[in-house]
Design a protein that fits this description.
This protein has 374 residues and is of the alpha+beta class. It is built from eleven helices and five strands.
Length: 374
């Protein structure tokens, strides 16, 4: 790990202090002993952040060696500077358990220095060294604690921002899927009804008026559903968005609208959806709606059978489009409708199978019933 420029600066300052000890401080003798111990200790400060325990060990060993070689304990100032910076660095850049290792090193060094200096200098030198060293260690520990807290807070903020962004993306996807289902269903029915009205306009005006009325009803229904959906984006609690979410009770009117559009549909409901929750009911409604829309656009309109069966564990949907697929119809697998159904089922933890059968096309979905909030 490369040394930081501030670490190089700290080492440079310590080297200047060590040079001053050697050049102008009286009593720092033998000079050679101070030089071979103080200069390496000062240089070791370049490791104060990269390897703080190594820096502390070198500083303590150098100070002990300087005392052993006969340099007075109360003369040189450089060892004090180096030890203080090393103690601070250990506490500031190491976990607390590892940083505590510096304290017995300081105690051993002070004890050794006091023994070498004699009883006369114990109070004025050893006690000062202990106070200064402990103060430096405590200052470093406080800085580290605040840094760790700040880093943890920054990570929590980042995590919440990511979670918020992910939730927004999921909501956009859900809204896009809802809009697709609403618009695709409405446009398909309206196109078919408009075509029927055009074909009988001259010969059977009454039937044409019925078809046009069905177009109007489908349009109103689509506008109401889009108003409910867009209302979810409003900040206030105005009128939009307060309509109920489509569910199992709306399957009858849904099927009736497709019958009016000219699609023969039968609906069978087995069991109750009590406790299923709005998310599961909406998923079931949209699957049936998409399957009937596909049958209206691509099927031969011979017969579509919708069966909704509920057991204690799951909700089973089966939509059979009985009849040969029209040759001029686009492949069902090429659009977004089937993909949307698969996404919806996946979100509620269910399973879905879609594909051709010998006499038509089938959609079969199994949605697990869960208790609790949805």
């Amino acid at each position: 790990m490369r040394a930081d420029r501030w670490d190089v600066g700290a080492a440079a300052v310590a080297l200047v202090v060590a040079g001053a000890d050697l050049a102008i401080v009286p009593g720092v003798t033998p000079t050679w002993a101070a030089a071979v111990t103080e200069l390496p200790a000062a240089a070791a400060l370049v490791l104060r952040r990269a390897r703080p325990l190594v820096c502390m060990s070198v500083a303590a060993f150098a100070a002990g060696a300087e005392l052993s070689l006969g340099v007075p304990a109360n003369r040189p100032f450089a060892p004090v500077v180096v030890i203080v910076i090393a103690m601070y660095s250990v506490a500031a850049h190491q976990p607390v358990r590892r940083a505590l290792l510096a304290l017995p090193v300081l105690a051993a060094l002070v004890t050794f220095g006091a023994a070498r200096a004699g009883l006369e200098t114990i109070l004025d030198t050893a006690s000062l060294a202990v106070v200064v060293g402990l103060a430096a260690w405590a200052g470093g520990a406080i800085v580290r604690a605040r840094t760790v807290r700040a880093v943890a807070l920054a990570r929590e903020i980042e995590r919440r921002e990511h979670a918020h962004a992910h939730a927004m993306l999921q909501e956009r996807t859900r809204i896009a899927r809802e809009l697709h289902d609403i618009v695709a269903h409405a446009i398909s029915v309206m196109v078919v009804q408009a075509g029927a009205a055009e074909s009988v306009l001259d010969r059977q005006p009454a039937r044409a008026r019925e078809a046009i009325a069905a177009v109007q009803a489908t349009g109103r229904q689509a506008v109401a559903e889009m108003a409910r959906l867009i209302g979810l984006l409003r900040d206030d609690s105005g009128e939009l968005g307060l309509g109920p979410v489509p569910g199992r009770s709306d399957l009858g009117p849904l099927v009736e609208r497709f019958r009016t559009a000219g699609l023969p549909v039968s609906l069978t409901l087995d069991g109750s959806l009590v406790g299923a929750g709005p998310a599961l009911e909406l998923t079931a409604y949209r699957i049936v709606q998409e399957a009937l829309t596909n049958a209206l656009k691509h099927g031969a309109r011979k017969q579509v059978c919708v069966r909704v069966a509920t057991s204690a564990e799951q909700l089973a949907l089966t939509i059979d489009d009985v009849g040969v697929v029209r040759r001029d119809a686009a492949p069902r697998e090429g659009g977004h409708g089937l993909a949307g159904m698969h996404e919806r089922v996946t979100l509620v933890g269910g399973a879905i199978e879609t594909g051709p059968t010998p006499d038509g096309f089938r959609v079969r979905a199994r949605l697990p019933l869960v208790t609790g909030p949805t």
